[in-house]
Amino acid sequence: MKIVVAITGASGSIYAKQLLAQLALFPEVEVGIVMSKNAPDVWRQEIGEEMLFSPRFKVYDRSDYFAPFASGSAKYMQMVIVPCSMGTLGRIAQGISDDLTTRAADVILKERRKLICVIRDTPLNLIHIENMRTVTIAGGIIMPAAPSFYSRPTSFEELADTVVQRILDQLGLDTKAYRWGE
Fold it and tell me: Which CATH superfamily is domain 2-171 in?
């Protein structure tokens, strides 16, 4: 399975960090990573450390249009943008492929594959809502980073994992997660 993970400069770096840690547990999953210009700065501000990823994951420059997932023929079947800024969502909704993240999202949508946009902004204005509607109609999944408390998380990581588990479910990856009613 091939998955693109895009990290934007929106607040919520912990979701990307926790997702990539979970994806590293699946040896059959190939992960390509792309980051926005601001993502490393926000990561350092929020997490307090530099971005470190599994050596199995390949990181691509945001302007590298020769990255495999810039084309539908590479068969990357799923993409997660986590966190997904409203600017990135807006460019995707309008078909503006001005960097590798938005180009990859365009490819995923045109190929009728799975695009998951983990938005974190609040409150939302009508432009945000319309962009979410447009991306949804185009086949994307809008997943607000809205953590749950059923499992009684006791740390920021456990709280973030309540969102990450939902992302993994959408990707079809089975994990030992808290399940309502079990």
Answer: Flavin prenyltransferase-like (3.40.50.1950)
Residue 79: C-alpha distances to residues 134, 150, 170 (Å):
17, 27, 11
According to DSSP, the residues that pair with 35 across neighbouring strands are: 7
| Interacting residues of 144 by C-beta distance below 8 A, sequence separation 6+ | 118, 119, 120
pTM for the model stands at 0.95
How far is the C-alpha of 1 from the C-alpha of 52, rounded, in Å? 22
**In sequence order, what are the residues at sequence separation of 6 or more whose Cβ sits closer than 8 angstroms to the Cβ of residue 35?**
6, 7, 8, 51, 59, 62
182 or 83: whose pLDDT is higher? Answer: 83
The answer to whether residues 164 and 18 touch, using CB atoms and an 8 Å cutoff, is yes
What would the pLDDT profile of 141-175 be if each residue is shown by its tens digit? 999 999 999 889 999 999 999 999 999 999 999 88
Distance CA 158, CA 80 (A): 20
- Each domain of the chain, given as residue ranges in start order, spans 2-171
